[in-house]
Amino acid sequence: MNINTSPDAINRSSANITPGYMSGFGNSFETEALPGALPIGRNSPQRCAYGLYAEQLSGSPFTAPRGSNERSWLYRIRPSVKHSGHFEKVDIGLWRTAPCHEHDMPIGQLRWDPAPIPKAEMTFLQGVQTMTTAGDAGTQAGMAAHVFLITKSMVDQAFYNADGEMLLVPQQGNLRFVTEFGRIDVEPGEIAIIPRGVKFRVELTGGPARGYICENYGGAFTMPERGPIGANCLANARDFLTPVAAYEDKDTPTELFVKWGGSLYVTKLPHSPIDVVAWHGNYAPYKYDLRAFSPVGAISFDHPDPSIFTVLTSPSETAGTANIDFVIFPERWAVAENTFRPPWYHMNIMSEFMGLVYGVYDAKPQGFTPGGISLHNMMLPHGPDREAFDHASNSELKPVKLAGTMAFMFETRFPQRVTAHAAKSATLQSDYADCWKGLEKRFDPGKR
Questions:
Q1: Gyration radius from the chain CA atoms
Q2: CA 210, CA 174: separation in Å to the nearest integer?
Q3: What is the pLDDT of residues 377-405, one digit of tens each?
Q4: What is the 3-state secondary structure (H, E, C) of the chain?
Q5: Model pLDDT for residues 24-64, shown as the tens digit of each residue
Q6: If pLDDT is split at 50, 70 and 90, which confidence band does 15 have?
Q7: Is 303 a catalytic residue?
Q8: Cα–Cα distance for residue pair 333/404, rounded to 1 Å
Q9: How far apart are CA 259 and CA 195, in angstroms?
Q10: Sign (positive/negative) of CA torsion 243, 245, 246, 248?
Q11: Cα distances (Å, whole numbers) of residue 293 to 246, 299, 329, 365
């Protein structure tokens, strides 16, 4: 077995870039793990250096406009046709794909306690549990929201998802994504994005892991437009990190799993498919530290829409209407005067799948704990519970820092259907809606 990365690329730190990564969002990167492995001035030379094969991986139609055209050229030990043999369909476990109508749960506001970490050995592929699905993967629209539970690293296994791009949000435990583009290490507070079709395996680097996944069937995640905010704040492009090339020259039997059309298939290979020695392009996995997000909020009065906290967005064919928005609620100062500072009570067209990485969410101080989930579907009312309402209505409105907190939403224009697993889970809080029972009538026509 031979694992190599370029010393020159790994040791670049003149701009304080994390070793092993390249900085920027949507850049056209180039990286090689062996000197001269990357062709210069052409993509597909007659003979590649080191006996490598040239291969293109396209994440968009060939004729997509330049601004949304995504592709990378890979220079690998074996072409991907050598990673594709006789596939067999295997049990996909609790992973589900839209459209999924396996359970007809009545509408309502829903919340789940954190899924317990299992004692049994469970790899990433065994530990994905789908909570909701939306849209239709076959039409490349919508999403699915999953929980993942991992107690064992993948060994001599690799996986790629042909159905969608995956945004992974660790909540407990550190993870390493060994991808064909390079290695990505993440911890709670960071996210990793693995594009559709990219091969990888998941390893534990710090005990059992739990987290969330947004499986994006639609347009690739991109940075939202800032509009009147201008050129700065929110997520900054320089804080996104893409790995440098790293490869395995490993002739060991390996299982390659593929999720395609909502099913899981496996083929057996005599070697590792993580064999890209060099690559260039703009279609690659990346990571982002959510703690680098620069929030923008009200400095006078009123609470802004949650869209002001959008980190990444998956666009739809309708301008301004997202297939998915990935929104966070990080540490920030609350300073608005004469204002009910938590999110107001509301109903809206978007469906909100919410999770908590760490800390306390200000609108739900009780019952919503790290690792937990809430689902507020389209046109179903929601907002602060009684405790949060009373506190926000009567507190002195001095500047307050909301510290040590990180909540997020997978927000989509599609209604999210609950899976049978989620509907029957022991972690489902049957009394969640009771959090609003204490909101009594306060109307008094004789008192302003």
A1: 23
A2: 9
A3: 999 999 988 888 998 999 999 999 999 99
A4: CEEEECHHHHCCCCCCCCCCEEECCCCCEEEECCCCCCCCCCCCCCCCHHHCEEEEEECCCCCCCHHHCCEEEEEECCCHHHHCCCCEEECCCECCCCCCCCCCCCCCCEEECCCCCCCCCCCHHHHEEEEEEEEEHHHCEEEEEEEEEECCCCCCEEEEECCCEEEEEEEECCEEEEECCEEEEECECEEEEECCCCCEEEEECCCCEEEEEEEECCCCCECCCCHHHCCCCECCHHHEEEECCEEEECCCCEEEEEEECCEEEEEEECCCCCCEEEEEECCCCEEEEHHHCECCCCCCCCCCCHHHHEEEEEECCCCCCEEEEEEEECCEEECCCCCCCCCCCECCCCEEEEEEEECCECCECCCCCCCCEEEECCCCCECCCHHHHHHHHHCCCCCEEECCCEEEEEEECCCCEECHHHHHCCCECCCHHHHHCCCCCCCCCCCC
A5: 999 999 999 999 999 999 999 999 999 999 999 999 999 98
A6: low
A7: yes
A8: 12
A9: 13
A10: positive
A11: 28, 18, 10, 23
**Alpha-carbon distance values, 390 to 267, 342, 439, 447 (Å):** 58, 11, 9, 19
Catalytic entry in 271, 303, 391, 421? 303
Closest alpha carbon to 124 in 208, 244, 34: 208
Angle at 125 between CA 142 and CA 127, to 5 degrees: 90
Number of residues in the chain: 448
Give pTM, 2 decimals: 0.93
Burial of 214 (0-12, 13-18, 19+ CB in 10 A): buried
Beta carbons of 143 and 409 less than 8 angstroms apart: no
| 36 close to 51: Cβ distance less than 8 angstroms | no
